[in-house]
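Tip: read the tokens left to right.
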């Protein structure tokens, strides 16, 4: 762990090599958030699943899908199954306009499965980026119309959809959508323009083609140290 960057918050699950909360075969590490909890604190949270009808329905459906279709269903199929199990009738798609084709296909699949679908693109409202203070220089490559995730959320809220599905919203735009969406939301596609919307690819390749991610902060050049052996 980089102590310098983490001195105020301490170690946590990302620093744990034991994972005893899942295995229950050994000891919890001294910094473990599970070990820090009282029985009462755990019970209070467990009650939020047991005693809240919506939370219970969602948690049970999610666990049933995980357990029932493990390694067999794609995320598309899992979302269809999830929507069925929570009794959703209307599904909202909050889509990036760059992934409109993917959203059209997804809408066809959902309709084939008996759902009503209402999709809203990120450019809906057609507001200028400069109207909210975005510098004009950031419009050259990507155009002048801003992504409008708050409007996407409000339009889907107005349609009273039972489940929102995010398709490829940009980082940060997705944050605003999640903040303003009233209904529950899941994500089909997380945008990564470089890795064909597979952001985990950078992590899987962090010991090979993306090792720069572990060598220097993002945006800084990796210092190349060539040894004598490398030169020969
Ligand atoms: S809860 Fe405790 S045991 Fe589980 S991963 Fe976190 S630190 Fe490790």
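Filled-in amino acids:
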């Amino acid at each position: 762990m980089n102590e310098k960057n983490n001195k105020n918050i301490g170690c946590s699950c990302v620093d744990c090599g034991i994972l005893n909360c899942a295995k229950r075969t050994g000891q919890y590490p001294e910094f473990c958030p599970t070990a820090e909890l009282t029985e009462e604190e755990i019970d209070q949270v467990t009650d939020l699943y047991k005693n809240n009808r919506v939370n219970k329905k969602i948690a049970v459906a999610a666990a049933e899908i995980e357990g029932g279709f493990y390694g067999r269903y794609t995320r598309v199929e899992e979302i269809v199954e999830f929507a069925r199990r929570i009794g959703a009738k209307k599904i909202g798609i909050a889509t990036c306009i760059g992934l409109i084709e993917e959203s059209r296909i997804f809408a066809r699949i959902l309709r084939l499965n008996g759902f009503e679908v209402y999709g809203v693109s990120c450019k809906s409202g057609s507001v200028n980026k400069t109207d909210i203070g975005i510098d004009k220089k950031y419009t050259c490559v990507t155009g002048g119309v801003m992504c409008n995730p708050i409007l996407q959320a409000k339009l889907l809220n107005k349609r009273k959809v039972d489940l929102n599905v995010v398709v490829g919203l940009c980082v940060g735009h997705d944050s605003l959508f999640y903040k303003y969406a009233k209904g529950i939301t899941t994500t089909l596609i997380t945008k990564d323009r470089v890795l064909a919307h597979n952001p985990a690819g950078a992590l899987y390749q962090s010991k090979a083609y993306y090792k720069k991610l572990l060598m220097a902060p993002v945006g800084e050049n990796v210092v190349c140290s060539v040894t004598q052996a490398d030169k020969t």
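DSSP finds ten helices and four strands in the chain. The chain has a mean pLDDT of 95.
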